[in-house]
Specification:
By secondary structure, the protein is mainly α. It contains 14 helices and no strands. α9 (127-143) packs parallel to α11, α11 (168-182) packs antiparallel against α12 (186-200) and α12 runs antiparallel to α13.
Length: 228
């Protein structure tokens, strides 16, 4: 696609490739099927590459509320043009764990406001907004070149504070963040193990699960060899 495509043209392509059977499968994996077309991520990523970076088009895709169009928006948007206002607006529209995670991985983590917004969102009560805070922590642990050990220790403290949230999509994101932080380097591995052990001794069922599951990975020989 060397030419400039309109929103209507792209939406037409998406609708042409819809798959009702995939939509049924998405629902089984806890993905909100209400506005979904059942299109695979490889297809969306390939389409995104053909479109190229286009901030204005991404904004328009997001407004359609179509699940795949919104994921496509996170692929083609330019993180340098993303504003705090846009991040606050989009995060409120998250209605599914995959949309939340794709947006954080594809776009928000690359924003200069990622650390700031993540700390803000993990204090929020809304399930997918709170998940977004921890999803960003997890993805920043993998990809960030500028955050320090001290920054991630802030996340570890927040993990302790928020680990009693029993909601599945929050609990799993907290666990994800803890594991990824603990795999960033040997110093943070030791700190994350300390947090895991503390959570295991908590009275909260959620915290116990988060700690036990994370500890198993963080103490594995494979991980220790990689980060040593």
């Amino acid at each position: 696609m060397s030419k400039e495509f309109s929103v209507d043209e792209i939406i037409k392509i998406l609708r042409h490739n819809k798959n009702p059977k995939n939509v049924e499968g998405m629902a089984k994996f806890g993905i909100n099927p209400e506005f979904a077309l059942g299109i695979s991520m490889p297809f969306l990523r390939n389409l995104g590459k053909q479109i190229g970076k286009n901030h204005n088009l991404a904004i328009e895709f997001w407004k359609t509320k179509i699940h795949e169009a919104q994921i496509l928006a996170t692929i083609i948007d330019d993180p340098k043009l993303v504003t705090k206002s846009q991040m606050n607006s989009w995060v409120k529209d998250f209605n599914s764990w995959d949309l939340c995670d794709q947006c954080c991985m594809n776009l928000f983590r690359k924003s200069e406001f990622a650390f700031e917004k993540s700390l803000e969102w993990l204090e929020r009560k809304e399930e997918f907004v709170k998940r977004a805070g921890f999803a960003l922590a997890a993805t920043l642990a993998v990809h960030s070149k500028y955050l320090t050990n001290e920054d991630f220790e802030i996340y570890l403290q927040k993990i302790i504070e928020k680990s009693d949230d029993e909601r599945n999509f929050v609990k799993k994101a907290v666990n994800w963040a803890l594991r990824q932080i603990g795999k960033r380097n040997i110093y943070l591995n030791k700190k994350a193990i300390e947090v895991s052990e503390k959570l295991i001794n908590s009275k909260s069922k959620s915290a116990k699960w988060i700690g036990k599951d994370a500890l198993k990975e963080l103490t594995s020989e494979k991980i220790l060899v990689r980060i040593s």
